[in-house]
Amino acid sequence: MKALLALSNAIVHVLERIARAAGWLLIVLMTITCVDVICRKLSIPIPYTKFQEMEWHLHAAIFALWMGYCYVINAHPRVDSYTEALPFRIRAWIELAGCLLFALPYMGVIVYFGLDFLVISYWQGEGSENVAGLHHRWVIKGVFVLGLVLVLAAIISVILRLVVYLFGGRPQEQVNLQIGHAVSEV
Question: How many domains does the chain have?
Fold first, then answer.
């Protein structure tokens, strides 16, 4: 059980590092957006289409690279109104069943077809429909597929923690299992 928890912690560590590194893309996004807006207001000729496409590529990259980490820290949207009053152990069983029956198979299929989506885009040399747009559309598709792989890794990490908690007799605090209703201060 100690090895499972160590593997889960390693996955979480990698997800956190990727998410924190992706956070720096917010500064790049902010800079590109500001330059785009200022140049438009001052009528300075720049490749507006490339700037706008880069903005949505960065939005997609930030979202994709944060998805997995958000799942392991329970920062994703949930509907827990049915399980909120249940004991934690029962919620853990429900989470394990949900992960094994729904999340893991679904993400496995999505990643499988996402890789195909990426390869086809690469081999076709897909780019922007706009002549002045960005080339190599496969790059952002690859980042999105990477994000899906990160979610798959996050689900595996949560499953490992659930197994250690449910079958290893470790307390919730030691396993650092974050499931169910999350309370956050704003």
Answer: 1
